[in-house]
Amino acid sequence: MTQPFSLADRRATAAPRDVAFYRDPYSFYDAVHASAPAFFWENYGHWCFAGFKDVNALLRDKRFGRQILHLMNREELGMAPPKAHTAAFDQTEKYSLLTLEPPTHTRLRMLVNRAFVSRHVEQLRPRIERLAHELIDGFEADGGVELLRSFAAPVPAIVIAEMLGLPAEMAMQLVDWSNRMVAMYMYGVTYETELDANQASIEFMDYIRTVIAQRRAQPREDLLTHMLTAEVDGEKLTDEEVISTAILLLNAGHEATVHTTGNGVKAILESGLAPEALFADDTATEATVEEAIRYDAPLHMFTRYALQDVTLENGLSFKQGETIGLLLAAANRDPSRFAHANRFDPARTDGQNVSFGAGIHFCIGAPLARIEMQVAMKTLFDRLPGLKLANAPQYKNIYHFHGLERLDVQW
């Protein structure tokens, strides 16, 4: 098979929708690490960084941010005007923690942060374990199952729904809305996809508005009520901010965890390593999950805007408003940082990763995601010791969100 990319003179061509590329972007990353860890990606039209040191530093560099329209207008940036047919989707993004900068980001994050600190989410461990067992009870006798929809997706979707105060039976509807919305981040998104994502956004917002009205009438001990009633410096969140934050938490609260769980199970089953050793105790389980997060990350590119004119130590200069791409998954496979970077090795002692980001936009749900994966994966392999792949899994045609189309297993 010919390589689905070209790389020369720090300029690369690699089509994110090319099947050979999105099924194996790591071959591209190997070439990048060998010749140009900082390179201009022609298909995207901006510079990208693949080295661990650079990505880790730039995630923390306050000269770059997720938002730019608070500093420059669309005309200055050469951006097209907003699309009328994606107005609802754009509304969900307007107050998203992922796209805001201080001080608005700081105020919003403070209001939801306490629900996701390690000591709080640790209390959810028994609930996650019960849920994992209940799901496995439902398919254990079948001898085989498509694991993503039957196990990997319901666990985080139900957990985040219950944290917000939404019924567990709504979880898979929330997953459907989320899947349709995140399709907007695909390279070369189609008009039909935009329409569908916008419709999903309308339905999602309408549902959250209904629940908000219920909570105003009857407050509960849940995260949604907390967002409606809590104050920072005497200010409460607006309904629009609550809706955006709730949708972000529901989307981010399951999407990456589903992919990482599926990718991790695949990696374990393909590695030939003994699951009983990988999940022998808490220490082994934590190490296995951390390696799964490093080895096959769920998010491959995270972009930033230059908030001012910037010149980096490597000599690259960026004007205010320019975009850069940070290749999280490539950084996790940087051979200058990790010994045998392309090997799945839970015993490694150099297992730091940037899958959850860094800096002020470090994933707020990282402690919860880690616990969900630790409990779900250990329970799965404990309950089904003969687990094996039923066929060769393939990755979905969404480069940014690196996950499997399906994961058929048997035992």
Tell me the CATH topology. Cytochrome p450
State the domain count: 1
Question: Could you tell me the strand content as a percent range?
Answer: 5-15%
Give the strand order, joined by hyphens, for the main sheet.
Answer: 1-2-3-4-10-7-5
Q: Averaging pLDDT over every residue, what do you get?
A: 93
**Helix/strand/pairing category:** alpha+beta
First and last CA, distance: 33 Å
Protein architecture, described:
The chain is of the alpha+beta class. It has a single domain (5-410), classed as Cytochrome P450 (Cytochrome p450), CATH 1.10.630. 49% of the residues lie in helices and 10% in strands. The chain contains 18 helices and twelve strands. It has helices at residues 19-23, 26-35, 52-60, 74-77, 87-94, 104-113, 118-121, 125-139, 147-152, 154-164, 171-182, 191-217, 223-229, 239-271, 275-278, 282-295, 328-331, 366-383; strands at residues 5-8, 11-14, 38-41, 46-49, 64-65, 144-146, 301-306, 310-311, 317-318, 323-327, 388-389, 408-410. The strands form three sheets. It has a seven-stranded mixed beta sheet with strand order 1-2-3-4-10-7-5, with helices on both faces. The longest helix is centred in the middle third of the chain and has 33 residues, at 239-271. It is globular, with a radius of gyration of 21 Å. It starts with a strand and ends with a strand. The mean pLDDT is 93.
Layout of helices and strands, plus pairs?
Elements: E1 5-8, E2 11-14, H1 19-23, H2 26-35, E3 38-41, E4 46-49, H3 52-60, E5 64-65, H4 74-77, H5 87-94, H6 104-113, H7 118-121, H8 125-139, E6 144-146, H9 147-152, H10 154-164, H11 171-182, H12 191-217, H13 223-229, H14 239-271, H15 275-278, H16 282-295, E7 301-306, E8 310-311, E9 317-318, E10 323-327, H17 328-331, H18 366-383, E11 388-389, E12 408-410
Parallel strand pairs: 2-3, 4-10
Antiparallel strand pairs: 1-2, 3-4, 5-7, 6-12, 7-10, 8-9, 11-12
